[in-house]
Amino acid sequence: MTTRETKLDGDVLDALKALGSQASLRNKNEAETRHHIIDFILHDFLSWPRNRVAVEEYIHPGFADYILKKADGGNLIFIEAKKEGIFFELPLSHSQDETSAYISIAKLISDANIKAALSQVRTYCFDTGCEYAAITNGHEWVFFKTFERGKRWESLQAFVVRSLRFFEREYTKATNNLSYTAIVERSSLPSLLSSTPPKDRTIYYPKEKIASYSHSITANRLANTLRPVVNHYFGVIRDDDTEFMDRCYVSQREYTNTSQGMRALIHDSLSPYFQSYGVQQLDDTGKGGRLGGRLTKNIRKGRKGEVLVLFGGKGSGKSTFIKRLLHHKPPRWLSEHSVISIVDLLETPEDQTVIRSEIWGKLVSQLDREGILASERETLISTLFPDRFLVAQRQELFGLAESSDVYQIALNNLVSVWKSDLSYCAKKLVEHWNKKSKGVIVIIDNTDQYASAMQDFCFTSAQEISKLLECVTLISMREERFHSSKIHGLLDAFQNAGFHISSPRPSEVFKKRLEYTISLLTSERRRALLIPDADEQFVKDSVVYLNILVKEFSNDRSPLNAFLTACAHGNIRLSLDLFRSFLLSGYTNVDEMISNGSWNFQVHQVIKPVMIPTRYFYDETLSEIPNVYQLRNTRHASHFTALRILRKLAKNFTASAPSYMSTATLVAYFAETFNMADDCVENLDLLLRHGLIESNNRLDYYTADVDQVKITSYGLYIVEDFAYIFAYLDLICTDCGIFDQEVGNYLLEAARTEYRHFTRGERIERVRVRLDRVEKFVDYLHAEELRERDFYSLGMPDDEMFTFKALELFKAEKGRVMKSAEKQKRRSSPRRTRRTYTR
Fold this sequence. Notes:
Oligomer: single chain
């Protein structure tokens, strides 16, 4: 765009804002309205040339205000103009920000002014055979089709511009649909005014009008005292905590899960994409498997200058594996014959200068185990710097008496310079260890937190270290970061030096950490260090609580075990985060569990503590668990796009094969069948980010580089079971965008009523409201799915509909939920004074 064009666009927008600022006056007559507003919108804003617009053309029985013409002189669209003082009363908008909407003509003609204007311009269209028309008072604009075969005119949808703010705030939408180029060259009117369900159906969001939507929930009564212990022992294992590592490390990294609702092998394994790069699957034998063997072999045989890459998914435990192998539990031979330097970049800012300084600084510090750099000058020179000292004697120190102050000062300055040359110091330290028959292994960890360009830098730094120091370098990377990085060419020379590590089984991680935590709490000496002020009763209650959870993770059919295993999908870090939330949440009814001494969790007792551990209402943007019914695209979306993607991938699924499907095929299906290519892409992005599907190159967000995807066990769990249960629908219904305003208002009022019952402690009444709300939501979804089945000619039987399963499950759950609420109310004693937590 030229400077002149930019200036013109700026002038037009300034003029548009000026018109908008005068909107409240409404004092122009028809001629002034046409000259100052309508002409401006048509010619200056929408770029209609005046020689393609006829004005005051006689059409019996009157004169047409504007006619936008075709190239052959035919009529393209009639526009009836009224003075700005004639108001068009439009149905109320859902939000103050709405500047345009689709509204049925039947609703619009309930206003006398609109009805009269529509009838007048429609007469002109009938007499000339023109299909499209519009009416405007300069501020409100109504575009519509004047007739359509087989349909009543009143049933058609009109595209309504509510105010001049539309042209300013939705510039792209206005020009893409109404400008000269859009209508004449790209035939935008048939699409804009199609009789199909409009692309811009108004979406209502109940949560936007719920004042209490951000209400927080208090943690359970054990949480305040137990939180430091939980955060420590269900978080990252520290470098200096060898006992924690020994007791809680899980080496088994491939497993089968037979949990209820999960019919497949959970397989966090090497994808075909990485197999094609020569990356090897790494089995953790406790001694590092093939990677440990490769490191040992390199040191034994004196191989120099090799870079190894450890791949693994997000949260799969790469850092923990490395630290255990080379820091906490190194194989005996490696321990005796090697020096290890682990450079962890987790907390290093994304800046090349800082990263380089951090790498070489930590490297020198860790290689200098004997403190040589801090030793006496003569020892330092004879041990590390004899080569540079020899050169200095011939140059900088030549002719100076060794006993003189000048000599001593000059030598001190030279030593200071040599010590500041970190790469030189590192090289000399490696040579020092080689003389002692010890090889050096350098690990650069947590590079995957950086953007692609910075990862390139980290990898080239690993190469530089390997070549300069003639040592073995190991760098850890996430697979998805590898693909988005530009280092493919660099790795071609190292195709046999890549290893993939799978994540451990979550239930084993939880069991080991729970048992270890229990052992610490039951040891009086250890407990005093952890929680010095804890009383005996608290300790007993905590141990009972944690023992109940140990049993849950020993049961493959446990909803808690199944849910946490599924939704983490190989990301142990995420799995631990979710479990910490569950442990401390106010929704986890620890008092009842402790009083019983044992507990069999139901799925609804798991979902809330995990999905909304500290909130009363669910908000997808604040939860790790997605809303699969959410409308993702404001122009053309369906509540069922995510589930349809999962179902198509599930039909291709076999436990013994990767079963990848082309993303191009998926997007083409949604484009051809539903005209929802964008909605498909946005849902693919969501499913990838939450791990319900997996790309062949392990990218965890959607880009054009995602060629193929497959469903994960999490995705299977969602599409086969989880998406239809009452507890899930109960949480997500107020978060959903809704096409039906009446249903949106119902959900809004139900949420407000439920919250009032909550504040009053009226459990039974609250449960009834929740049941009614979910029933209304499921009925609405069912109506939407029936409409889509008919409109898109899907031809599926009832029992294949998503909402058929939801309705059947709801019927079965409705009675059980009420009985459970009544049973818990009877259990509650009025004499109890302890705090209760509502689930």
